[in-house]
Design a protein that fits this description.
- With 181 residues, this protein is mainly alpha-helical.
- It has 6 helices and 3 strands; from the N terminus they run αβααββααα.
- It has a 3-stranded antiparallel β-sheet, with no helix packed on it.
- A hairpin with a 4-residue loop joins strand 2 and strand 3.
- Helix 2 runs antiparallel to helix 3.
- The relative contact order is 0.17.
Length: 181
């Protein structure tokens, strides 16, 4: 019985810690970091897989949720453009042996708040729909799945573009650092 009680408390603890987790995500996302080639490559590979599976999942979701694929692909495009803009305003510190970067705080904040706002708004819409007496499929539809896919696409597109640009910038810096003086 205590194990079941403990397992039941895990979701409640996660919900209670969400504001702290979002604050930590913002702090880490906007901190100065060493530009490591392997980390940037891992980011490109993982975000490419995420984008691929995200689009595949959105394609299947589109059978049941109208406009899911269009929202998801539009979100990816907006996120990709935002990632390039975020990369353009990133602060770079090139030294002879190291390259550091500091992502723009405003871009990190907007991306973090976008996801938060979309989840909160979806829960609000679902609560309103439940209060109106909707149940089952209609209640799930009230959550705004297509719009949530759009918000998710923005995040995936942003980090895909950012990691691609980061990897390109590291390679460019490495070529300059290896060039004889």
């Amino acid at each position: 019985m205590p194990l079941l009680l403990l397992l039941g408390l895990i979701p409640i603890v996660m919900i209670a810690l969400t504001p702290f987790l979002l604050l930590q995500r913002y702090r880490v996302g906007s901190s100065r970091r060493l530009a490591r080639p392997w980390v940037a490559t891992l980011g490109v590979v993982s975000m490419s897989f995420s984008a691929l599976f995200f689009l595949a999942g959105s394609t299947f979701t589109n059978f049941w949720v109208p406009r899911a694929l269009s929202y998801a692909s539009s979100g990816l495009a907006v996120g990709f453009a935002s990632g390039l803009a975020g990369l353009a305003v990133t602060r770079w510190e090139a030294r002879p042996r190291t390259l550091h970067f500091t992502p723009n705080r405003w871009f990190v904040l907007v991306i973090t708040l976008l996801v938060t706002a979309r989840v909160v708004f979806g829960l609000y819409r679902m609560a309103i729909a439940a209060d109106a007496g909707l149940t089952g499929h209609a209640l799930v539809g009230a959550f705004g799945i297509a719009e949530s896919l759009g918000a998710g696409g923005i995040v995936i597109g942003y980090y895909l573009a950012y990691n691609l640009g980061l990897r390109w910038r590291i390679r460019r810096w490495q070529r300059r650092a290896l060039r004889p003086m």
